[in-house]
């Protein structure tokens, strides 16, 4: 064996040993038996000193990808996070697991900062969370250089890109900061980043280096997707959450006024609904947030910023009373449901007023024309998802470049939707696209089909095309819906990075040539109201509904203990134990602490802190014939 091959073999063995150590820490610290998809590969890369760009959906365990290497390597990991609430939440969670972590931000007391500097000096601090605005200061960089940074983690990395849906200028300096820190191994993480955004992240954060790229499927199979035309948002959402009493949910609104009005309306219907937006008094916001985090069955009615800084895993549904800003925002916001992997539900209401408002916001914004053009196309893609004639999940994943079959459990897969053979209409629309060079947007093509001789049509002589006026049998609203549905069906696509023109896909060309047919939704074409889809407890309560009566009684007692402990500790309930942990405790009923250590989410620190109290509840509710003789030997 050559010395080079021997070195490679030795390096592989070392990485294998490191991954085995990581698996052991995964269980002992976090209480997890196995990695989620994609986590092990990322952890192994970081332990080997490689740079990483990870695009992973919300709820897939992005944070663990850098937290575990931070614990194992023993050096300082700096985590860039844009939200103080998220920093505070993750620091409390890590401290509860026995990991020395801290956050450096404007909310710190003098004692907080003193402890951070002391732990930096003695080398005991494992993770330091810092906002990008604080990190780019010369004093912060100089301090970190003195102590050395072993790993740099950049959360919400799409904020660095002008093509991202939440561009933040302060992120632009992070590439230079990374260089000043000596180019430590770096992981950039985001839940949503298309190809242009990913390229921008690499260029601005990593410079000449070539990070390993990990793109996990955007699919969240535990989320049930549902959309409805808006009739009365209060009544529709009220009926939806009435069938889900006792479960935690978020209802998003487009304005502060709407938030307060809807929260009051839902409360008047008997729901435990609380408002949350930046205009409320700080004490009210904090009290409402604490109630949502510590109690069960609370509905938080909020503007869209709520939830970004909260890692609450047991949100069982997310509703949109108003249409989100674009597909990326929709995906990120529904991603706050079901982060524990258990079934969760989403309901989005949409109407013409929402569409007008969102388009007006884009046009009246202060963004550049290029930026506005991209936002228009991203919003159009969301409208297409609302009016899709096929599986919601299939359409959503197609936007992110993934192919999939029908999911079988979104509203369109489960409900009967009136359709008609729209092959001729599709051929008319695509013929107009083809004859104009596949470079025009919806409005120009609609005017051609209607036979309206606009100034642009006359100037380009498009009034002489064979397709001019062939669509007079339908109005402009119907043709716009046809274009959106054809997009949702994958027959046409938008040049989002270009000028927003429609172009025909391979699937669309088959329809244009008469080699295939297409069906569209009548409901969307006519603007009719969707029927009320009331599903009882729905998918959200599947995990708990499957429990026996005795197990449900035990689960209620475990939740009651969790609530009391969370109140005493002034912490979110899930930082004690998650719903998944309590459900598993109720089903498996461990008879001693040794067996309790095998329950998902119970690491050594939590076992030491909470094990006895929860074990007492389990044993007190156990059937006589299942009682263990004692727990002394196992203790």
TrEMBL record:
Cofactor(s) named in the record: Zn(2+); Mg(2+)
Enzyme class: isomerase
SMART domains according to UniProt: DEXDc, HELICc, HRDC, RQC
Residues in HRDC domain copies: 548-628
Catalytic reaction list: Couples ATP hydrolysis with the unwinding of duplex DNA by translocating in the 3'-5' direction
GO molecular function terms noted in the UniProt entry: helicase activity
Span of domain Helicase C-terminal: 236-380
Annotated ranges, domain Helicase ATP-binding: 43-211
Membership in a protein family: Belongs to the helicase family. RecQ subfamily.
Protein name per UniProt: DNA helicase RecQ
Gene: recQ
